[in-house]
Design goal:
Helix content is 60%, strand content 7%. The protein is an alpha/beta fold. The protein has a 5-stranded parallel beta sheet with strand order 2-1-3-4-5, with helices on both faces. Helix 7 runs antiparallel to helix 16, helix 12 crosses helix 13 and helix 13 packs across helix 14.
Length: 366
């Protein structure tokens, strides 16, 4: 079946005689036709099944052809259906009104057979080309979406591989990062940050301590307190992490580098490694900082037992000498306070999951 035979044309006219004439002429050229006796009937028919082209009378009881054309062109579903206005009016005002309503062509009654065929054929060719472009664009969009998904999966694999490398050095690091992603995402959403930021920080935040790969085991795994010299070495993990991640081109590794370098900076300028203050600290690192402190307080460390949720929130919001509220971005601290119960739920959920499935990191980051 060729394109002409497959094309369906809707004829809209309140005069049955006019419909029969147009049907006969179009059938001679191999077109399929449908008909409607009013504008209302035409819109109902088009809603059921869209034609490839419409021959539309202007002067009809009820809805005029102008009104039908305007309704069709204002609807994205039907806007691309070509319309030929068929009218006995030949004045300039009638044609301008038809063009304003969205008609592509005009035919004057009585209809000339050759003119009808030429206008119908040309408009159907244009529609066919337009449909081809729309379909081509749809295919391209699908391919772009697929490729983007593949790239994002590759980025996640990179994150997972790096984090697992850190986990081999320190088992607690692996447990810690399972929870960090979700804390950060909760705060990003609570602060109404863009979706791409929320997604990026979810995947980037587990890399915040990747620089610990470069810290000697006798320091990283030391059960007691650090000497001043050991602490100086330990603090270099921020710059080491930034150095590992900064060459990456994905949004996850770029944000990961930013977080790795700055997540121990404090709002009041008392942090390290560069003593940054206020908004000089990247937002992702300011969010990461409070999440890191919460999870560290909840977790057992060589120098402290694990604290419960209530004590942890109290330390963050009121201070304990070591940790002070002035360490945190006030907006981030406000969001944390409002979402504290969700932090507790995340911690409890993943601790339980880790106890039953120790190697659950990949699933929790999916």
């Amino acid at each position: 079946m060729n394109k002409r035979e497959s094309a369906t044309i809707l004829i809209v006219d309140d005069e049955p005689r006019n419909i029969r004439l147009l049907e006969a002429l179009l059938h001679l050229e191999g077109y399929t036709t449908r008909d409607a006796a009013s504008g209302e009937e035409a819109l109902a028919s088009i809603k059921q099944q869209a034609p490839d082209l419409i021959l539309l009378d202007i002067m009809m009881p009820g809805m005029t052809g102008y009104q039908v054309a305007s309704a069709l062109k204002s609807d994205p579903v039907t806007a691309n259906i070509p319309i030929i206005m068929v009218t006995a009016q030949t004045d300039r005002e009638a044609r301008l009104a038809g063009l304003n309503a969205g008609a592509e062509e005009f035919l004057t009654k009585p209809v000339d057979r050759a003119e009808l065929w030429v206008r119908v054929r040309n408009l159907l060719r244009l529609k066919e080309y337009g449909d081809f472009l729309a379909n081509h664009n749809r295919i391209l969009n699908e391919q772009v979406t697929l490729r983007t998904a593949q790239l994002e999966e590759a980025y996640r694999d990179t994150v997972f591989t790096l984090v697992r490398a850190a986990e081999r050095k320190d088992e607690e690091t692996g447990h810690h990062v399972r929870r960090i992603s979700h804390y950060c995402q909760v705060l990003a959403e609570a602060m109404n940050l863009p979706l791409d930021f929320s997604t990026a920080i979810f995947h980037a935040s587990p890399m915040h301590d990747i620089g610990k790969i470069g810290i000697p085991d006798h320091i990283l795994l030391k059960p007691g307190a650090f000497t001043p010299e050991e602490w100086a070495v330990m603090k270099t993990h921020c710059a080491l992490g930034e150095g590992i991640l900064s060459s990456g081109t994905s949004p996850y590794t770029q944000m990961g580098a930013e977080i790795a370098l700055n997540h121990h900076e404090h709002w009041d300028g008392s942090g390290y490694p560069n003593g940054l203050e206020g908004t000089a600290i990247p937002l992702a690192a300011r969010i990461m900082q409070i999440c890191d402190v919460y999870d560290a307080l909840r977790s057992q460390r060589p120098y402290k037992p694990p604290f419960d949720h209530e004590r942890t929130v109290g330390i963050i919001t009121q201070g304990d000498g070591r940790t002070r509220p002035t360490h945190f971005d006030p907006a981030v601290l406000t969001a944390f306070t409002a979402q504290a119960d969700r932090f507790a739920a995340i911690y409890d959920h993943f601790v339980t999951q880790e106890q039953s499935r120790p190697d659950s990191l990949q699933g929790s980051m999916a």
